[in-house]
Amino acid sequence: MSRTLFFVLGVLSVFVVALGCGTDTSTSPVVPDELGRCADFEPLRKPLWGDTHIHTNLSLDANLQGTRTSQEDAYAFAQGAPIALQPYDADGTPTRMAQMDPPLDFVMLSDHAEFLGTIRTCLDSDSPAYENPTCEQYRDALEFDAPPAEVRTTFVQLNLLLAAQPDNAQYPALCGPENVYCLEAGMDVWAEIVDAAEAVYDRTDSCQFTAFAGYEWSGVPGAKNLHRNVMFKNESVTDLPYGYFDEPYVEGLWARLLQECIDAGNGCDVVTIPHNTNISDGIYFENKMANGEPFTAEYVAARNAMEPVIEIYQHKGASECLPGETISDELCGFEIIPFSDIAATNLEIISPPDPTGFLRYAYGEGMKFEASLGTNPFQYGITAATDTHVSAPGFAAEDDFKGHGGAGQPNRYLPPPQGFPDIEYLSPGGLTAVWAEENARTAIFSAIRRKETFGTSGPRIVVRMFGGWEYPNDLCNAADLVEQGYAGGVPMGGTLDPQPGSSAPTFVVSAKQDATSVPLQRIQIVKGWLDGDAYEVRVYDDIDGDSENGASVDLDTCAPQGEGFGDLCSVWRDPDFDPGQRAYYYARVIENPTCRWTTHQCVEADYDCENPTTEMDADCCDPTTGLNVDFCDAVDCSDTNSPPPVPADAQCCKPRVEPVIQERAWTSPIWYQPPS
Amino acid sequence: MLRPLLHFFLIGALLFTGRVVFQGRGGDPPEITVQMSAEATEAQVEKEIRNQILLNEARRYGWYHTDPIVFTHLIRNMRFIEPDSTDDDLTLFKRALEMKMQEHDPVVRARLLYRAREALAHVPKDRMPTRDDLEQHRVAHQDRFEREGKLRFEHVFLSGTKRGEALASDAVAMRTQLADLGDAAPQGLGDPLPGLRAVQSSTASEIKANYGEELSVVVGEGVIGSWRGPVPSVYGVHFVRVLEKEPSSVPALTLIEAEVRANLLSEVRRELSRERMEALREAYVVHVERVP
After folding, report:
1. In A238-380, which ranges are E strands?
2. Distances from the Cα of A293 to the Cαs of A224, A247, A286, A290, in angstroms?
3. CA angle A503, A476, A383 (to 5 degrees)
4. Do residues B281 and B241 share a domain?
5. Which domain CATH number covers A537?
6. Which residues, 6 or more positions from A114, have their beta carbon under 8 angstroms from its beta carbon?
7. Whole domain around residue A330: which residue ranges?
8. Are B237 and B213 in the same domain?
9. What's the average model confidence in pLDDT over A522-548?
10. A568 and B161 in contact by Cβ < 8 A?
11. Could you tell me if A483 and A430 lie in one domain?
12. Candidates A72, A479, A512; nearest CB to B235
């Protein structure tokens, strides 16, 4: 460990300068030289849809849950092909399929780095570790009818290594002296991952699909989630996918990526994307470096440069804000999972999440660090993703949810799920959109670096936001809104400098509904600012649209009811602006109400709550189902003759989650920096 | 997919091929008897026949004895039924075979069927595609590699939200205004909409995803040079003028070599599987016993 820390300290001293050079901070639509290879090049940028968080059978948790589909299958699914879903029958025939329309524009597959080499080692009969008991146990667990308890044990024994404290993080013992077996195997797998992305990346001028090489760094010390997805700009990558066992501190990961990628002089570039800060038990934004000391100026600069965006929402819930924290914000209740860390999520142990693990807290702390250390380490742009563990990128529809596995319900065993296909607290996840000149790696990666991104909870709501000082009040009526937006200010993700003589910053937010979803209801702007040392937040509601539009949903049919808006646009000037206060502003675009996925399932199953007769899922004693914990508490699993006294329709008739949601889009913020 | 499996499959494929050739030279044909229920359909019977042939081949090549997953699975079974046994793994394994445990175990069956199918699909070196093969495949199956054609068009939009009840009359006025433009560009006309561009190049699929089916159909008709509309969508109404049609095209091999290679190999594997399976099916003497 001391070796790692020494290494980290050594490279952090040059980190800031190097990253500063590599960062695309431009906010005007100037066309860099390397862009322009696509026929549909658009200098004013267009929205492209993607998913940057997907697991396939290369991930330990996915393949033990019965995911057999490969990276190639995932890429095909993202482009519109059907994909097989578990459970499979004895002949290897899948019992379920999934398909998505429209396809995605770009994808980064992010299989867990830590066990890529271990899995390959255990399946390679030429490996010296092949006969290792752990490998034998793992191979047994992959068998068609391996008992669920044995699979669970195998998974926990291996995966528990990720929950070790950083100083104790280590490869499985089977990896041999200096972990050489797994390191070598891991290099092979990583090379295949990069090749797979290359094979599907459309290098013609049609530019129909873009794939990025990447992986997930999966450290969860003490079960507190610190995961990051590592996304490379192009085919120039590091030799190894550095995981938690290689670099147990994120500073170590950044240092590796800096030295072996960004500083390598071969065109390599890379970012790390945090996610699920909601289940970090409050440590994700903790003011503590690897050596236990508070942040330094070098650290905050490194974090700012290395982590331009964050995943605000995915399968394991939203990380935006907690209801009741900071201010009253009713829309903070969206997809909050009631778990404090990853273990509680896996085991469904209800435990209140820590509000300091949420983005709204981080935005405030970030501005404080900026004031004291010169750089905001939490100046995150916004993305969203699925975190699917069934190789289904972008499969985020509420009305066709088939479960994502991972921390959710595995669905490995026959028969196919008779009730909910996932733990009811979890959800289908969301999508990332970028404003980029073309569907190609350089353009998309640059958009992520400059944070001209937004996330949605699934629907393809398109939102654009600019901040400036002199936008006209009728900008929403101007056909050249975008040209004026760039010329007079910065897009989402940018930073506004002080403007002497101007009264207050002005923001233009325009949005359009997903053509296949329900209309929009309203646009909000969320503002946070520092008043001295005090962090304040305010939500400006209905800057366009109408929160009282009366829209609703018929819970018997899931049919949406009431009117809404196909598009919304507003020019909004901050009425409370103080030029001496640091601030950020982001927009939330809210859809009319729709059924949550759980409600869709119940409607399709046609449950009669007045006369419950159908058993939805009574298998309380199967540890792989993870369902119905409340009434399962009363079940004696040691008494196999006693069927669980589960109410037939408990999940549908006594739902533990909100039956109705309001899907949404979140823009990256625009920050304001006062004069120094 | 995995090195050890490939190793086994390579050997298996060679053995399969050799056996079929050998049988073709007049050796005693192998026989199997398949028991099926009286209600089974012909398709179910044929499926089971083919599975039994593959399992018999696996048996003939000794995969029951050599497959590592079968080995560990049978030992685990034996340790379950003989928890107090102090015998070593090999002894237990032999005893499992003596008990014919492998004949009825679903895991062993699934494993060997999987391995046999992979062996059937193994691509020998002399069938690996050359660059010429790839080019021929690209040309012969252009539909698989085709990039959807694009249409470059001008786009004027009127927002239903902004214009409300005036939308219909505004649309009539806009139609007249556009007709009067002649060839001039509709500079500054219409309302903005995120992602909408005055001139854009898109596929019909992209237009459908962004604006709905109706606009996709109108633009997709590709009538060049005249304004079409108003076309309704969930956003309001649209007017479009197609400027240029770029037909669908098949990229050069250098640009899509990896894609073509993957597609061809998949086809070769399917063909090899079919050929080898048919050869085996022909070589076998099969007896079907219908049981109640």
Report:
1. 270-274, 309-314, 317-318
2. 19, 18, 11, 7
3. 85
4. no
5. 2.60.40
6. A60, A161, A162, A218, A243, A244, A245
7. 2-455
8. yes
9. 96
10. yes
11. no
12. A512
Q: For all residues of chain B together, what is the average pLDDT?
A: 87
- Could you say which of B4, B193, B262 has the minimum Cβ distance to residue A567? B193
Taking only residues 95 to 134 of chain B, the set having a beta carbon closer than 8 angstroms to any beta carbon of chain A reads 106-107, 109-111, 113-114
Q: What is the extent of the structural domain holding B72?
A: 3-140+255-291
Q: How far apart are CA A598 and CA A619, in angstroms?
A: 18
Residue A89's pLDDT band, with cuts at 50, 70 and 90, is confident
Q: Is B288 exposed, middle or buried (0-12, 13-18, 19+ CB in 10 A)?
A: middle
A352: cis peptide before it, omega within 30°?
A: no
Tokens of A186: 């891991």
Cβ <8 Å between A91 and B110: yes
Task: Provide the ipTM.
Answer: 0.83
Alpha-carbon distance A198 to A201, whole Å?
5
B115 & B215 share domain: no
pLDDT, average across residues B145-168: 94
Tokens of B61: 């090549």
Q: How far is B153 from chain A (nearest CA, A)?
A: 12
pLDDT at B109 over 50: yes
To probe the interface with B, which of A101, A480, A483, A512 has the most B CB atoms within 10 Å?
Answer: A512
Are B213 and B260 contained in the same domain? no
Q: Write the residue in B68, B161, B192 that is nearest to A125 by C-beta.
A: B68
User: What is the per-residue DSSP string for A504-562?
Assistant: S-EEEEEEE--TTSPPEEEEEEEEEEEETTEEEEEEEEEEEE-TTS--EE-TTT--EES
Distance of alpha carbon B72 from alpha carbon A139, whole angstroms: 9
Angle among Cα A576, A356, A425 to the nearest 5 degrees reads 105
DSSP-derived secondary structure for B148-173: PPEEEEEEEEEEHHHHGGGHHHHHHH
A1-5, A645-649, B106-110, B122-126 — most confident range: B122-126
Please report which helix (H) or strand (E) contains residue B31, including its range. strand B31-37
Q: Mean per-residue pLDDT for A280-290?
A: 97
Closest residue of chain A to B148, computed from CA coordinates:
A206
Q: How far apart are CA B189 and CA B6, in angstroms?
A: 63
Tokens representing residue B230 in the block: 């108003």
Show residues of chain B in contact with A479, CB under 8 Å.
Answer: 187-192, 198
pLDDT exceeds 60 at position A225: yes
Residue A586: strand, helix, or coil? strand
B23 touches chain A (CB under 8 A): no
Both B184 and B262 in a single domain?
Answer: no
Q: Which residues of chain B are within 8 Å of residue A47 when distances are taken between CB atoms?
A: 194-195
| Tokens matching residue B165 | 């009840």
What distances in angstroms separate CA A34 from CA A18, A105, A392, A438, one per listed residue? 20, 19, 31, 11
Token pair of A437 as six digits: 């000149």
Nearest to B150 among A39, A123, A198 (CB): A39
The number of beta carbons lying within 10 Å of the beta carbon of residue A387 is 29
* Rg of chain B taking only CA atoms, in angstroms: 32
Dmax over CA atoms of chain A, in Å, equals: 80
Give chain A's end-to-end CA distance (angstroms, integer). Answer: 39
Q: State the total domains in chain A.
A: 2
Looking at residue A624, its pLDDT comes to 46
Residue B80 pLDDT: 86
In the predicted structure, residue A403 carries a pLDDT above the cut 70: yes
Asked if the C-beta of B200 comes within 8 angstroms of chain A's C-beta atoms, the answer is yes
Encode burial over A572-582: b for 16+ CB neighbours within 10 A, e otherwise. bebeebeeeeb
Give the Å distances, CA to CA, from A584 to A538, B33, B145, B237: 11, 76, 46, 35
| Whether B212 contacts chain A with CB within 8 A | yes
* CB atoms near residue A633 (< 10 Å): 8
Cβ within 8 Å, pair B194-A463: yes
